[in-house]
Amino acid sequence: MRPIAFAAATALAALTLSVQAQDTGQPAANPQIDYDGFTQLTVDLAEIRAAHRLPLRQFLHQAKADGAILLDTRSAAAFADGHIEGAINLPFSDFTDEKLAKVLGPDTTRPIYIYCNNNFSDNIAPIVSKRAPLALNIPTFINLHGYGYTNVWELADVVPSSAVPWVKSSDS
Fold first, then answer.
1. Which phi-psi region, left, alpha or beta, contains residue 68 (left: φ > 0; alpha: ψ -120 to 50)?
2. Rounded to whole angstroms, what are the CA distances from 106 to 62, 99, 144?
3. How far apart are CA 70 and CA 164, in angstroms?
4. Residue 87 CA: distances (Å) to CA of 131, 164, 171
5. In a shared domain, residues 72 and 101
6. CATH number of the domain within which 143 lies
7. Per residue of the chain (172 residues), what is the pLDDT tens digit?
8. SS3 of 154, please?
9. In terms of Cα–Cα distance, which of 98, 106, 110 is closest to 71?
């Protein structure tokens, strides 16, 4: 297709979507946001996630294995205020193909171990509990799989922070 014809077709498609959105009273679909795809991925991963939740002892043991990554996806500030010893930080809001590859490496089958605020019973900074349906483990697990990292393991237990080797970044 010639450049002018392509540009005209693209403009016509955008105008058609805009008119359709006005006809229904709904905003036009954003092609960069796929809610249906996310919900389908969530459903598809439910059984896998259930099988990839580990009790504390097993989680800590496996997270120390050669090549394993202990990933904390809380904010950089929360991570600096305290995290499980040996964890690396990549805030969930910073997930992109490039940043994940830089932090986790190119091996998408490498074991990754995740935890979040809701794994701790303390409910004080830096691990203040979130609402259960919004616990960070859930979107972290789903997003890692969505980005192609398929060997993800989640801490299943709720424990006091004193039950894990807890450090502050200044202690690391």
1. beta
2. 20, 11, 13
3. 13
4. 23, 12, 13
5. yes
6. 3.40.250.10
7. 454 544 444 444 454 445 455 567 888 899 999 999 999 999 999 999 999 999 999 999 999 999 999 999 999 999 999 999 999 999 999 999 999 999 999 999 999 999 999 999 999 999 999 999 999 999 999 999 999 999 999 999 999 999 999 998 765 4
8. strand
9. 110
Closest CA to 135 of 165, 163, 156, 111: 156
- Residue among 134, 159, 154 nearest 45 (CA): 154
- Token digits for 94? 């910073």
Cα(172)–Cα(164) distance, rounded to whole angstroms?
15
Q: How many domains does the chain have?
A: 2
Q: Residue 98: exposed, middle, or buried by beta-carbon count in 10 A (0-12, 13-18, 19+)?
A: exposed
pTM metric for this prediction? 0.83
Beta-carbon contacts of 125 under 8 Å, excluding residues fewer than 6 positions away, are 78, 81
